[in-house]
Specification:
This protein is mostly beta strands. 9% of the residues lie in helices and 38% in strands. The model has no long low-confidence stretch (mean pLDDT 96). Bound molecules: thymidine-5'-diphosphate.
Length: 144
């Protein structure tokens, strides 16, 4: 469910010359990371996301600025505000997500457990709701 998507506090190496945060698979990142991407230059008022994934796991970090992540598991909704580079929101399969309210100059960094595959996306909310209902009926243990 949306409540199984933890907000991970990441280690900070702080120094007079600035701070550094590490994400390392096998240590504080719960999956291998064959792909990293980032959203930037997002115009004010834009919404990103608007889809779910069947298998992909992700960590989302506000590497700069802030934005809001709306999570939906078909039953529950939860909103998470990210505004510090030392927090990562973990997103597991079967969670519909939308990103809103990007601050000017913000950067949304995403670590992904798989390479890009369009077939892993569910981009239609009704299709997502049906997919969730089917998985519930099958007693799937996808954590959502
Ligand atoms: P999409 O995942 O829909 O963006 P968002 O959810 O942030 O709004 O991706 C936007 C476009 O970029 C879409 O045409 C697919 C392409 N894309 C890739 O080619 N590779 C990638 O790794 C990602 C994430 C997107």
């Amino acid at each position: 469910t949306v409540y199984d998507c933890p907000l991970l506090e990441l280690p900070r190496v702080e120094n007079r010359a600035g701070n550094l945060t590490v994400l390392q698979p096998g240590w504080n990142c719960p999956f291998d990371v064959p792909r990293v991407y980032y959203l930037y230059d997002v115009p004010g008022g834009s919404t990103r996301g608007g889809h779910a994934h069947k298998n992909l796991r992700q960590l989302i970090v506000a590497a700069g600025g802030s934005f809001e992540v709306l999570l939906d598991d078909g039953r529950n909704r939860r909103s998470v505000f990210l505004n510090r580079p030392y927090y990562a929101l973990a997103l597991y399969p079967g969670i519909w997500r939308e990103l809103h309210n990007f601050s000017s100059g913000s950067v949304c960094l995403v670590l992904a457990s798989e390479r890009y595959e369009e077939v892993d996306y569910i981009r239609d909310y009704k299709a997502f709701a049906s997919w969730k209902a089917l998985h519930r009926a099958e007693g799937s243990s996808d954590g959502a």
